[in-house]
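Sample log: Response regulator receiver domain-containing protein.
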Amino acid sequence: MRTVLIVEDEFLIAIDLKLLLERFGWSVFGPAATIVEALKLLDVELPAVALLDVTLKDGAVTPVAEALRARNVPFVVASAYDRPELVGGDVLIGAPNVGKPTEQRRLLATLEQLVSC
């Protein structure tokens, strides 16, 4: 099953992403708006892939990215930053960045690529 965890603190963006991904057959966890929420969801079930906003209301998404790496779950960042690792730390180095605003085709292609690896 194609499952994705969405970590995004802007409500309208999170809902748009959720509806988009569900329309294309993804099963969505969340969206989680905070680091704590995201970590709780990861304790319940692991997604195939995650989509992360770099800056959340309660801080950088770094602890979530570290938890995903520790569990071998690939992730994508959705960030307007050219170099999200400067904000979110070294754990984000090499993670695909689908940009913000996120273009639909690019997002879907990137997620598909990560789950097929």
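Observation: Residues 11-23 form the longest helix (13 residues).
Observation: The radius of gyration is 12 Å.
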